[in-house]
Amino acid sequence: MDPITSDVDRLLTRIKKALIVRFSLRVDQADDCEIDKNIREGVELNGTYLWILMCAILIASIGLNINSTAVIIGAMLISPLMGPIMGIGYGVGIYDFRLIHKAFKNLAIATVISFITSALYFYITPLSGAQSELLARTSPNIWDLLIALFGGMAGIIGATRKEKSNVIPGVAIATALMPPICTAAYGFVNGNVAYFLGASYLYLLNCIYIAVSSILIVWFIRPIARREIDEKLQLRIRLFLVSVVFVSFVPSVFIAVNFVHKQVFERDVSRFVNKELVFSKTFPIDFKSSYKNKTIDIVLVGKPLDEKTIAEIENSLPEYGLAGTRLVFKQVGMHQEDINAMKTALARDILEENRAEVEKKEQILQTLQENAESAEQKVKEEKENMYAGIAQEIYIQYPQIHELFFADAYVSRENEKNIDQIPTVIIVSKKNLAKDSRTKIEKWLKFRFQTAEIEVIFVNR
Q1: For residues 372 and 340, is the Cβ–Cβ distance under 8 A?
Q2: pLDDT tens readout for residues 335-370
Q3: What is the pTM of this model?
């Protein structure tokens, strides 16, 4: 044999042995009897278990209700639901049908108690809004399935080790068994079928794939507690598992595809808004997109866009993968109510800790405030100059007039709901003005104010 070939073969053999040792699950595996004992103890349903379970479910419900991630994580850390699920997987893996029955029964009891406890909380609590943490559990997809699969695998591997680590608490957080039950209870109490079904499906996915991953690992390590059954029964069990996995897998794929399309749509909308809606005197202060309806609602503050500009914006939609999407513009000016709307949008972004949007909208708000103040000051100066010119001309033409009052009056008319704002001039004279003089003054003022809607009041004093 070629010496070089011989050396390569030895090197590959050494690498293979090293990899086997590194990735072997038997190196620090606990005694089979200890594994069996620990998993069976985790399946037990006693008073302590139930009290911890109810405390955990109440903590999770409160966390979802107040939208606190830290509280929800705390609830998942003390949740004891992993025990019966891994018991099911271990029972199937060693073909212990009595253990499977017991674990199924205890998991069902624990699930019902958790659901009732959470439902009672959501029935009593005055906070009825669906927060983001709760909404996140209503649309399970293939990623939740993969998390449950790998989480369950890590859980059963950790449970079969000599040295107990923080694997089980970590798996409890990753797979999140408690929040879906709480969300299902919330949907049930509030009559929201979509929330109830979505969260129930997520909980079912977690249970199934944690159990399936446990079965695979138990089959791999082949503990001595494994029972010997005939090949036909083994085949039936495996066919049943494949059927369960397939039936639970298919809906998650459809949901995942829809989720991906929605995320892509929202990303394209953000790109479109950030690149196309950039103007010197017009600012987008808020926008909402609907993947379902294929619409983008945009609120603009500042100088209104003309039809030509809007048409150009709409024609650019296909460039961002948004062909067929309908734009809905709400254009407002630079009045105080518009600035208030900007402040409301800014406050919402601060609450959502959206730093980029906060900084962007703070700059826009500052520009709007400056423009509004500048516009108001300009209008005020123009009015003062116009009023001063009118006053000087009247004083020259009619010496008997010695005082003028200018104002914008709000007028309410009988049988009309609207309140009109019209310019008003109060003319104070030392004696009554002749009728033709009053008529001339009124016509002249209408010409100067460029409006027929003007109120002129003559007063003798």
Answers
A1: no
A2: 555 556 555 655 555 445 455 555 655 666 666 666
A3: 0.64
